[in-house]
Amino acid sequence: MATLTLAERAHFAGWDTRIAKHARRIRLLGPLSWPLSVEADFFSRPPGQRRLPDPPAPRFDHDDERRALEEALGALDDGHPIGEFLARTARSYLAAADMLQAAGSPAFTERSRRLYGSPREAIAPGAPTHLEAAEQFLRASEGCDSVDINDGGMPAAEAAAWLQAQLARYFPDPLPVELAPALAAKSTAGARRVRLRDNTTYSQRTLAQLLQHEALVHSATKRNGLAQPLIRCLGLSAPRTTATQEGLATLAEMITDTMDLHRLRRIALRITAIDVALEGGDFFAVFETFTAHGQSEVEAFRSAARIFRGGDVRGSIVFTKDVVYLKGLMRVHTFLLKAIQSGHRRLPARLFAGRMTLHDALTLEPFFDSGDLTEAVTLPDWVRNVPCLAAYLSWAAFSNRIPLDKLTLNDFRRDQD
After folding, report:
1. In sequence order, what DSSP letters do the residues of 312-343 get, joined into one string?
2. What are the distances in angstroms from CA 167 to CA 155, 171, 208?
3. How buried is residue 229: exposed, middle or buried, by Cβ count under 10 Å (0-12/13-18/19+)?
4. Of 40, 123, 234, 318, which has the fewest Cβ atoms less than 10 A away?
């Protein structure tokens, strides 16, 4: 059992506080997001007269944060699991600062690729590329997305009340749900609150997805990490944890039956659209990629805007973050199954004790056993129910061997009662 000495605890706690203080000032998604006025301007003109969007150019100055994080790297020992965790976190935020500093230039895309990957990279050794996996899924699900999943909508105030009641079942301390009239995204979730865009409606399915994906994964891991008595950097949204976070969140939707095919196809389609942009396609080409696959113009605009955050709407310079979803889902699924198979039945829950990578979960596991790190307080039901989780993961792994592309309905005429 790994147990920290008093000197080690003081050393790591001190650097953890410094890293957390400066890393929090390096914000990615908020500063890169386009204001709602850019969308309004785009749709104010008839389709044939629309112009390329002209979002305001973001400006960043993180020199003080860079110096502090570089100082931390000089003081931390990568040979110790907790020292390695803190050093990797500091490096992740340094890489993010470098990327933000290069917004609008080719270096922005190159640094985005280092953080998140790109469509033509392999998901894992011997596995297909992100783009190949996305295209295979889009082909396999062709025609299925015409199923009507519209289950009506409720006003934002009613949606907030429903969501607040659900959150009360899981969070020991209240996680407030607030309405925001000028929210660029339809919803956001953090450690302190969940925000819904006012003056809009929410379907029951959308709210269920928000509960499972945003609140019970992203908000829960952040809150659990901030509650750690020693290493509060486990409550940071370090870019290096994005693939694991989105993999967990996407799996959560799958296993709780809140994922719908339209949403899953949208995740795959974003990867193909990123490739279109990287190959030189401008905003219009990416926008039309989404509309050609059935997205409404408003949805297509917002999907395309995600890809060009911090980039150049004329093409080639893009934000590649949305590549991580399929990779994260596949790797988290395999990790959880292997953890249960090998007797590490507490690892799935420990992934929720903070925001971490799969590597972190393995290297930090002894410190949960020693009590230096505390177990997750807030957990979704599917993680608590390990036997059912194992059944789901095992069946999904087995069913992946079925060659769907070689089967038709006529093959089942041979079945006999």
Report:
1. -TTSS----GGGHHHHHHHHHHHHHHHHHHTT
2. 18, 6, 11
3. exposed
4. 40
First to last CA, the chain: 57
Instruction: Please state at what angle helix 242-255 crosses helix 324-341, rounded to 10 degrees.
Output: 70
- The span from the CA of 390 to the CA of 269, in Å, is 29
Cα distances (angstroms) measured from residue 247 to each of 35, 108, 363: 28, 24, 19
What global pTM score does this model have?
0.91
Beta bridge partners of 196: 179, 187
Strand 194-197 and strand 187-189: the pairing is antiparallel
Which residues does residue 155 pair with via DSSP β-bridges, in sequence order? 201
- For residue 335, give the amino acid letter: F
What is the rounded distance in angstroms from the CA atom of residue 54 to the CA atom of residue 104? 12
Q: What residues contact 54, with CB distance under 8 A and at least 6 apart?
A: 38, 41, 313
| Predicted confidence (pLDDT) per residue in 146-175, tens digit | 544 555 688 999 999 999 999 999 999 999
Residue 254, helix vs strand vs coil: helix
CB-based contact 115:126 (threshold 8 Å): no
Q: Are 289 and 234 in contact (CB under 8 A)?
A: no
Choose the weakest-confidence range: 32-36, 138-142, 398-402. 398-402
Helices (H), 24-155: 29-32, 36-43, 63-75, 81-101, 106-116, 130-140
Residues pairing with 197 in the sheet: 180
Element (H, E) at 348: helix 347-350
Could you tell me the two tokens for 83? 């020292």
Backbone angles phi, psi at 187, to 5 degrees: -155, 155
- DSSP string for residues in 172-204: SS---EEEETT-SSSEEE-SS-EEEESSSEE-H
Q: Which of the two residues, 405 and 332, has the higher pLDDT score?
A: 332
